[in-house]
Specification:
5-stranded mixed sheet, two-stranded antiparallel ribbon, globular, single chain, 548 residues, transmembrane helix, membrane, transmembrane
Length: 548
């Protein structure tokens, strides 16, 4: 027990070292990570809207929790919990001194670094859930598995990765078929909050799949990049240390250690270990295929909701946490075979230090790239002026990302949709640099695409906004984007500030709420009841009548 507390403390300290300035009061705004003081529960946060449910149900969960806690506190809890759970979860799978190595490698690796800078906090939570799912499944604690799978399903990719490990683990374990069917359905149900809205978008296009494939880092090529657990599509999210010659050597060395740990891991976890390895190898293969043959991945967009997994490098998540576990077991086995017992602790310490020493720029919020700031008061003023109502708002200039000077000119997704108490129409077209060429990648929001085309044609928002349910326009100053003067012709100025200006376009003559909202709400309530029932069963004694 004492050793567990020490490992937990070490995971906590290492996580604090990684996050650094991101843990200060305020909001760490980087690429896709946007937290606000009070996100509202709106139809689009549940998946009812014209876009694919990429941030479902995470935004709805954040909006509900915002009733209790401010957004900046929720963000610190989410980031810290993701890293601590990953490190401590990996340690739970390892016996002996190698657990210290597992903690280090689970927290301090390129996959975590790049996803942190990219702002994929919910994917990191799903990544952290995987070892806990495996431990619970090997012990046949199915209610616990359902709860962990529900947490992983905050993001669609996380929910899929958790399900493809957990459901086979249920089905391949001995037991009554009825119990296995029930728990499998419960695990599957945790994905319904995003799956149902995704299936409602049959025919929605999500381009750019080839652009979002795994990207080789440095001159080492795609294979060594993937082995080293890097390769995110956004080159700006990659740490400079990934270009050093030592990076591929460390990646290969860690994987070699992991190979030494497989037999002991398999003896302990059996079939569940085999499932985890299979999913990890498949994820590695698909991620690598996205780099070697990107055109093959275009077919994914033809599948209903398939655009949700166009970022193939995400599929390295199971491998990244599995390598941490196996390397911890592997170094423990190597240390046991060393004749000089005084050398064994030195091997453990060296294996702990090397990953940190060879990627030092992950420390302190990726060298300040993930750091907390305060929103200017203009944002609160605009929120109060707009209030809640039937009409929507539109965010200008018409560009998906912002480089605010008050955010240190760090790139961040437009925060306005999460800041206002109304649904916001915003551009979702990405500009991706690949091989020296800037390639625009169209989004999957049909409504935003229509608005963008009319703005590009020079039409004023007052001419078509109200008939599309848009009542207000919010203009951000001093940020890059198309000129908004033509779009705001005839609009009435409601308020002007240093950072933002608010315009009234006219009384809306239509609403944007879809008729599918009722079905989504019913599904979400049923899933919540399933998860709640599973959480209650966690505290019951393990008896056969519960199937665990």
């Amino acid at each position: 027990m004492y050793r567990r507390w020490l490992l937990l403390a070490y995971a906590f300290v290492l996580s604090v070292l990684v996050l650094g300035p991101a843990l200060r009061p305020g909001y760490a705004l980087t690429y896709d990570m946007v937290f606000t003081p009070h996100e509202s529960l709106l139809p689009w946060t549940l998946g009812a809207g014209s876009a694919l449910p990429r941030s479902v149900p995470q935004d709805a969960v954040v909006a509900i929790l915002n009733i209790i806690l401010p957004g900046w506190v929720l963000q610190k809890i989410a980031l810290l919990a993701a890293l601590v759970l990953a490190g401590f979860g990996a340690a739970r799978c390892v016996r002996g001194p190698g657990a210290w190595v597992a903690v280090t490698l689970a927290i301090w690796n390129p996959f975590v670094a790049e996803r942190l800078v990219q702002g994929h906090w919910s994917l990191l939570i799903a990544y952290a859930c995987l070892p806990w799912i495996v431990c619970a499944a090997s012990a046949r604690r199915w209610p616990v598995v359902v709860v962990w799978c529900a947490l992983a399903a905050l993001t669609p990719t996380g929910g899929l990765l958790a399900a493809v490990i957990a459901i086979p683990a249920v089905l391949l374990q001995p037991g009554r078929r009825l119990f296995k069917a029930v728990w499998s359905l419960a695990i599957f149900a945790t994905n319904l909050p995003w799956l149902v809205p995704a299936l409602m978008h049959i025919g929605s296009e999500s381009g750019g799949t080839d652009v979002f494939g795994l990207r080789a880092e440095g001159p080492w090529g795609s294979v060594l990049t993937a082995v080293g657990l890097g390769g995110i599509w956004n080159g700006e999210a990659v740490l400079p240390s990934r270009a050093l010659w030592i990076a591929p050597i460390v990646g290969v060395a860690v994987c070699t250690l992991a190979a030494f740990g497989w037999s002991a891991f398999f003896r302990r976890f059996g079939r569940v270990a085999g499932i985890w390895l299979t999913v990890s190898v498949l994820g590695f293969g698909l991620a690598l295929l996205s780099a070697i043959a990107p055109t093959l991945f275009v077919a994914i967009t033809e599948i209903p909701g398939g655009g949700l997994v166009r970022d193939a490098q995400k599929l390295l998540a199971p491998l990244a946490i599995l390598v941490a576990v196996l390397a911890g077991i592997g170094i423990g086995r190597v240390a046991e075979k060393v004749a000089d017992r005084a050398v064994a602790p030195s091997l453990i310490v060296l294996t702990v230090v090397i990953p940190i020493a060879t990627m030092p720029d992950l420390a302190f919020g990726a060298s300040g790239r993930v750091s907390s700031v305060a929103y200017p008061s203009d944002f609160e003023t605009v929120r109060e002026q707009v209030g809640a109502g039937v009409g929507d708002a539109i965010s200008l200039p018409w560009a998906a990302f912002r480089n605010f000077d008050w955010n240190g000119h760090r790139t961040v997704l437009d925060p306005m949709p999460r800041f206002l108490a109304r649904s916001v129409v915003a551009d979702d077209t990405l500009l991706v640099g690949r091989d020296g060429i800037i390639q625009p990648v169209g989004g999957d929001d049909s409504r935003a695409a229509l608005v963008g085309s009319r703005l590009a044609a020079g039409e004023a928002l007052t001419a078509f906004g109200p008939e599309m349910g848009i009542e207000y326009a919010v203009l951000a100053h001093n940020v890059a984007g198309p000129d908004s003067q033509a779009a705001l012709r005839g609009a009435q100025v409601v308020w002007e500030g240093e950072e933002l200006s608010l315009y009234w376009l006219g009384e809306p003559t239509a609403t944007s709420s879809g008729s599918d909202l009722g079905l989504i709400v019913v599904v979400d309530i049923l899933v919540a009841l399933v998860v709640l029932a599973s959480a209650v069963l966690v505290y019951f004694p393990r008896k056969r009548r519960f199937g665990c």
